[in-house]
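Work Package 3 (structural annotation) set out to generate three-dimensional models for the target panel prioritized at the project kickoff. During this period the team completed the workflow that converts sequence records into discrete structure tokens, so that structures can be stored uniformly alongside our sequence database. As a representative example, we reproduce one entry of 257 residues exactly as it appears in the project archive.
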Amino acid sequence: MKVSYITATYNDKNLKQSIESLLNQAYENIEIILVDDAGKENREYIESLVLCKQIILVKHKLNIGLTKSLNEALKITTGDIVIRHDSDDISYEYRTQKIVDFFVKNKDIDIVSSFAYVDNGKNKKLITAPTNDSDIKNELLKNNCLIHPTLAFRKKILDKTGGYNEYFKYAQDYEFYLRAITLDMKFETISEALIDKIYSDDNITVRKRKQQLFYELAAKSLHFANYEFKYQFLKSICLTLIKLSIPNWLRNFRNKL
């Protein structure tokens, strides 16, 4: 099986270490689609990647954002499996092999995620997720329980799902998951950490938390509009509003503990 990694970068401080973690994968049949979204940092390193046979480099003159950049990468992929990778995170050496082995053994599964260690520079904390299809779907109806940069899926599902919804500047992964649920895609989570998720003050998840939650509300509204799940919709909306009420300083303090 050929594997396509998709990643987009915009002034990421940890880019070199992140890309090196992909180039050092034990599984060799991979391609890396790296979209340089018109950042000013890492210019020398990014230019050096042109010589790497495993990397397909897409360079933008203007910044178009993560969602459109990921869709651009998806159009180029030639692999049987597509794996997300954030350009400041670290994929473990055996990540690709684990995912390929999983898809080979579980032919009915369309989308898979994994656990991850979150690294805030001071300590590392294991982040888990529901592991079986029904539990994942039940939790996704409440909140985004999956870690986007752990995502992997069979490329053929794009024939049904399409790519990311470009109206979603943030929470594009959550909208994608809810859309996949409506199309009866099957989910599962590998119950071990396969990446280090790096958090810093520059991380989009940290800086744009409230915007992400507003887009999460929009994704829920789109999804529940197709069903008679009025109680679940109201409950889900309330959970998101509670999240919005938590001050950033309190959330950041908790994450650093």
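The beta strands are 3-9, 30-36, 55-59, 81-84, 90-91, 111-119, 124-127, 152-154, 187-198.
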